[in-house]
């Protein structure tokens, strides 16, 4: 367990114990290349092996591994350093005594520190202090520095610096039958300026990754030139330095590495660039300074300062830290999406699901260019989505539930239950709702930025193609005089088919139907706002005629929504016929029933039979839309929606949810904030500790839960502070939460930075940093015009 | 020579004879990959070999080449088809009789047609009609269709369809000593659905290119399934089909190919994608329909209709055609720049110079997203430009004159004079003015689009880095009390050093100094318009403090400009001391003195000694800025600038220019339009035929002159129609040119499409296609507010 130290001016210096998995370092570029690249024969090429942390096993063939202790596993292969006193063993924490072990993650500076004293069999004690980072400024670089002090001995030591390509992916136990070796050798050699180079290639996707490393040694502050002995293997290379050390005197060893891949922009070829890079790169301290400066600027625009005297603040910052490590300004233009577990671990093998839905609200209001780049990732795969739609007999574009490298569907059709050891059929690829999520993201990016150019060149084409898909997916039920969407699965993965039915999927999942209706309603708005010329071109190209648009209008108005009693929306058609689940019985029987699906399957039963949800997907609607927006959607559909709808639905579904997804807490916290603030806060706290406490009992080491992390930030900004972007203004409608004394953060709205400070009594809006034009900001129920440099205060809750 | 046929409703059906080089097909993606990728040992990897035309030599090892005739050379390797009657020779136009040869390039549809009758030694006559295109819609595809009719014989024939990787680059004679082989074999094999695959890799840059081809044969409209014989070599693969043909009966052979490279987005790996693509791709006609539709939409937004009853219209459209083939919506995000000869030929080996300066004005007002992508190409190479500045002791970023793949300087330090056979020292890399051109492009993109997001995330960083470079490059001359820029070369490449001086470059090139001053003046404006937060971050990151900004202001005010007499600007300091050139003598002595540098060097002389310019670079200023803008720049510098300045400078330099660059005509036409419309028009006509007539006597086959082509369009829009974009409005100030009856075109301004129609009497502005907001348009001297759907007419020249 690491401590994580934070030392920002108004950051509390309190230390929290942190799991190893959360000490992973990244910069938005490292580890993104080649992810989600799988061939059809399960040759998983996810190079999570290149993370600067995580649980990947390095199996050094040259010098023993330093790490056997599970707690200390996140020494990545390319920052591998080791030493041994002459005649002794290579340092191995599992086989020597370790004293005074301390590990700190500095969130503010993006660095990981370790300090420990080891004692070998001969009783020689050595202190090692290490600092490492993956540069946020120089995206191809990472660096490690060791300060080694012999405490009770002098003599000759050997230092090994290695690049190791033999790493494998075995961080997720249930994938043990899948291929774990993903790298093939290309080249390993010594290069100019005392560097070394290792080039490997992913097995299936043929992505070439070149790593070069430069190791320098300093004694008494002066660099000592030691010619290393080189050892090369096909998949590894090491330099070994021999030097004299003296009791009580420091030796500093610094290793700087550069990573380039064949997909990088602005390169000639990766190994040449990697070698040039380490020949030119500054010393550790110079690189560190630039890295820290880059983080300082990121924090300035990303921090959410929350003055409430407990660890909430620190966990929020931990979340911001990991989100920025996953997608940062370094990610722009890389053609990468957002995998559901970030780049931190191997779970889901780097596939891209719907998680942008949770993370883009954070970026839209700070780094919209990152959202634009994430949307371009989808745009680049639009042809594949068209192909998928065509193959299933639909129009438009159907994006896959689990998107692989080229945008194909990578969802499994069977999956392993680790509780029972059974492989069971998997219908989860029928989660067509991912298409509504993408449309929702396009719209929200546009409305936050008014980036007309993006909309007319890329966004509208995607939006209309998705609308076209939904319209063709919907079928008319004459008896009901309503449109229906059949054979789908909603976000709640406990319900994927009807009990004892061979049919795949479910009928009329309410979440899916309403989202599809929203897409079709909004598509008409998109058509209305883009220029005529683009509109005509698009409609012709996408083969959408007036008749089809009329059809969209029709489907958008007459989509069927199933109800149970009163205003309680039925999760899907037939949900009411399912059995009530004996929650009490199972809570007694099992310690943890969050993953009820696995529990039931082990018993030969299935959650499909019960009114029991992993997450209540009906409630997602109340998270995505404001009450007013939902009223409008429902009214257009000709259904009632009154003040009680929300509460009735929450009450109904909260009793029937196992919270098997970390997202479930997010949704409940959001909705409950409107009428049960205490319980809302409790859910928010549960959400905050999802990864910190690894509440799912073991999923965090497989990778962080990015949606939940981002959701916790979105809860602060959109829910607790009531930020809502509409065509005419940015709205701010803060809630009064007794747990928060003050919140302060900056957001970017249509090119303008706005600083918000909210206490229990006053909302302070300062428009000090905008472009010269003015901006409309709505507070509670009125719109105000802000001019540059203007600051206004509004009394709250009086 | 091909005819080029154009058949747009208001396009004249007149046919013009067209050089082969101008029949090259492209789509903005094809041929862009791997360009400008050279190692330091002259292993030129410019895969111009993959152009769908051009003069690259295919050397088929499998079946004889069809082409030996220089006029017919543009059969690209991957669209290679051939046939032979049983027992006969493979068709080879050099060794058989050719009757009725006709070739048409259809600009509107982007297709190339050929029809000819060949007669072999046995007297067998066969008619071949071919159609080919490189798809503008499906960017990875190209296709070729042959209709083969035996006219006086029946029997068995063999058809060969080949993918040939043995192509070399030998299209430019003076490069004969450079490496011409750039491809290494990876794989060649038969693949699913009757396809074949050839994978090659560039020698130095290791770019993998996978090509798959599918060949189908139809008789009497029905597909016939013939199992081909396969022949594979290391670098080539062919399928041979045997079939019976009958006198007078057509056989159709269609070949569809797909190209993918290892740098492509949204792929798993290139060969898998290429094979999947041809297995899924539609028939020739389907692909063609999509391709034609894409061109129709491009033309709708790009055409400049000019009603003046001569070939001017056709040549303008030829230029639009080639510009759109070089950079199209398919280019967006590819990380490619604009090489000075497009992708059409091998001259300059794909290096990127300053040509965006001429092409972005066209894109800014139609497809700004393409400009954005071109600017991102520079942004991605900003670190390399920083490194270059640092190495020379400057601050900021110094972009190279000839930019290679990773942004390094690729200018030669010696070059070959083909007239004398001598290798002569080359100082042209001192053309630092490319840095002003990039800044100018950023500003003009911003002012046309108001894309604040681009400016704050990317544009401002580049702009300020360039400003920082100029400020550090400028040195203070105490005697003059002015700043100077030393050791540079201006756009006029005839002057690269002082006669009999060992010093590299020139002092105070007026164009460079004034552009640098403009950059520094405008940098202060950029700092003023971006948000405070971004400004602070940038200044800190780029290490620019208040003192430096004060210095920019100072340098921007006190830059030295050399003058000759009165208001005549001296091209550089000391220009006045050079000898007058005996123009008359040389015009008598040599037929063509456009490339005076080569002529003089052959005589042991040098243009450095004379007042003789390839292009008069002082005059570039009058092209880039309006008179008012120049007045402002000069006034801020404390120099006079009056109404006569322009005329005096033009008169002085026109007598001293050889027009050795096609850009020279552009600049003269532009400037003369202000007071000598007849001569302006003559220069415009000379510009229009630069490539059409190959006026430089042989450079067109080495690649088109993209800057000149784009310049001819810019002359119409910015010069003749007086379009000028300012902060407050889009200005339109049309000239009255007797040669033009009517001009009609569309432009996009800040997201709004505006249709302009200009006759001798009336300017009609129609704002039918904009977003819902209104737009300010200035006509002549007043600004009008246009609301959506508004149309206004203004009387002209009365």
Structural class of chain A: alpha+beta
Biggest chain pair contact, residues each?
Answer: A-B, 65 and 65 residues
Relative helix content of chain A: 25-40%
What integer is the average pLDDT of chain A?
A: 87
Radius of gyration of chain A: 27 Å
**Distance between termini of chain A?**
45 Å
Strand content of chain A: 15-25%
List the topology elements.
2 copies of one chain form a homodimer.
Chain A: E1 2-5, E2 16-18, E3 80-85, E4 97-106, E5 111-119, E6 125-134, E7 141-150, E8 155-164, E9 183-191, E10 195-202, E11 208-219, E12 222-224, E13 229-233, E14 236-245, E15 251-261, H1 270-280, H2 284-302, E16 304-307, H3 312-326, H4 356-364, H5 368-379, H6 382-391, E17 414-416, E18 423-425, H7 434-449, H8 452-473, E19 475-477, E20 482-484, H9 510-529, H10 532-541, H11 546-557, H12 583-589, H13 596-602, H14 617-624, H15 627-637, H16 643-654, H17 662-672, H18 677-688, H19 706-720, E21 723-725, E22 730-732, E23 742-749, E24 752-759, E25 762-767, E26 775-779, E27 782-786, E28 790-795
Parallel strand pairs in A: 1-4, 22-26
Antiparallel strand pairs in A: 1-2, 3-8, 4-5, 5-6, 6-7, 7-15, 8-14, 9-10, 10-11, 11-12, 11-15, 13-14, 16-23, 17-18, 19-20, 21-22, 23-24, 24-25, 25-28, 26-27
Helix pairs in contact in A: 3-19, 4-5, 4-7, 4-19, 5-7, 5-8, 7-8, 7-9, 8-9, 9-11, 9-14, 14-17, 17-18, 17-19
């Amino acid at each position: 367990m690491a401590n994580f130290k934070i030392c920002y001016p108004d950051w509390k210096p309190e230390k929290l114990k942190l799991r190893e998995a959360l000490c992973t370092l990244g910069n938005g570029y490292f580890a993104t290349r080649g992810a989600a690249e799988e061939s059809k024969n399960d040759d998983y090429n996810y190079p999570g092996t290149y993370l600067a942390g995580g649980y990947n096993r390095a199996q050094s063939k040259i010098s023993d591994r330093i790490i056997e202790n599970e707690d200390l596993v996140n020494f990545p292969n390319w920052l591998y350093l080791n030493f041994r006193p002459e005649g002794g063993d290579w340092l191995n924490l599992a086989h020597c005594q370790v004293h005074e072990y301390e590990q700190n993650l500095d969130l503010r500076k993006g660095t990981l520190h370790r300090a420990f004293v080891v004692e070998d069999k001969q009783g020689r004690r050595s202190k090692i202090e290490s600092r490492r980072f993956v540069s946020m400024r120089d995206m191809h670089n990472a660096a490690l520095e060791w300060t080694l002090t012999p405490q009770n001995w002098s003599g000759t030591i050997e230092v090994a610096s290695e690049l190791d390509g033999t790493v494998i992916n075995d961080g997720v136990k249930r994938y043990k039958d899948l291929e774990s070796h993903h790298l093939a050798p290309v080249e390993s050699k010594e290069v100019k300026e005392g560097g070394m180079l290792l080039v490997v290639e992913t097995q299936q996707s043929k992505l070439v990754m070149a790593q070069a490393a430069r190791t320098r040694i300093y004694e008494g502050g002066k660099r000592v030139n030691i010619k290393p002995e080189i050892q090369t293997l096909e998949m590894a290379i090491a330099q070994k330095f021999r030097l004299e050390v003296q009791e009580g005197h420091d030796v500093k060893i610094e290793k700087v590495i550069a990573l380039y891949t064949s997909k990088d922009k602005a390169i000639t070829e990766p190994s040449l660039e990697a070698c040039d890079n380490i020949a030119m790169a500054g010393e550790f301290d110079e690189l560190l300074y630039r890295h820290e400066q880059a983080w300082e600027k990121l924090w300035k625009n990303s921090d959410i300062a929350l003055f409430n005297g407990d660890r909430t603040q620190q966990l929020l910052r931990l979340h911001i830290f990991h989100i920025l490590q996953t997608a940062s300004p370094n990610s722009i233009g890389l053609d990468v999406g957002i995998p559901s577990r970030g780049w931190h671990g191997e779970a889901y093998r780097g596939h891209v699901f719907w998680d942008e839905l949770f993370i883009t609200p954070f970026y839209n209001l700070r780094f919209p260019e990152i959202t634009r780049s994430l949307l371009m990732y989808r745009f680049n795969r639009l042809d594949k989505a068209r192909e998928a739609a065509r193959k299933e007999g639909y129009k438009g574009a159907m994006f896959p539930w689990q998107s692989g490298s080229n945008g194909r569907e990578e969802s499994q059709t069977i999956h392993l239950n680790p509780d029972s050891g059974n492989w069971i059929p998997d219908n989860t690829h029928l989660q067509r709702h991912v298409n509504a999520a993408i449309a929702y993201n396009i719209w929200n990016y546009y409305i936050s930025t008014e980036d007309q150019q993006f909309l007319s060149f890329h966004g509208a084409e995607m939006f209309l193609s998705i609308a076209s898909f939904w319209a063709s997916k919907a079928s008319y039920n004459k008896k009901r005089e309503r449109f229906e969407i059949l054979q789908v699965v909603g976000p709640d993965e406990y319900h994927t088919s009807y009990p004892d039915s061979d049919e795949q999927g479910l009928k009329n999942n309410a979440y899916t139907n309403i989202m599809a209706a929203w897409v079709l309603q909004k598509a008409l708005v998109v058509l209305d706002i883009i220029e005529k010329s683009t509109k005509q071109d698009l409609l012709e190209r996408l083969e959408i005629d007036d008749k089809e648009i009329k059809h969209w209008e029709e489907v958008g108005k007459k989509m069927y929504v199933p109800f149970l009693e009163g205003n309680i929306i039925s999760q899907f058609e037939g949900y009411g016929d399912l059995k009530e689940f004996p929650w009490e019985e199972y809570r007694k029987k099992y310690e943890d029933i969050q993953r009820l699906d696995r529990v039931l399957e082990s018993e030969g039963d299935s959650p499909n039979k019960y009114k029991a949800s992993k997450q209540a997907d009906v409630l997602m609607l109340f998270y995505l839309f404001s009450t007013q927006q939902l009223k409008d959607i429902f009214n257009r559909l000709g259904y009632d929606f009154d003040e009680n709808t929300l509460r009735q639905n929450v009450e109904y579904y909260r009793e029937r949810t196992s919270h098997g997804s970390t997202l479930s807490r997010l949704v409940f916290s959001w909705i409950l904030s409107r009428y049960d603030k205490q319980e809302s806060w409790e859910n928010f706290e549960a959400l905050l500790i999802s990864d910190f406490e690894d509440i799912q009992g073991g999923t965090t080491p497989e990778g962080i839960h990015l949606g939940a992390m981002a959701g916790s930030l979105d809860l602060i900004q959109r829910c607790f502070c009531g930020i809502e972007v509409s065509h005419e203004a940015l709205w701010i409608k803060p809630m009064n939460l007794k747990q928060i004394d003050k919140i302060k953060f900056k957001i970017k709205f249509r090119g303008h930075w706005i600083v918000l400070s909210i206490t229990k009594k006053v909302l302070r809006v300062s428009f000090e940093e905008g472009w010269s034009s003015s901006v409309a900001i709505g507070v509670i129920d009125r719109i105000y015009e802000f001019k540059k440099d203007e600051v206004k205060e509004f009394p709250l809750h009086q």
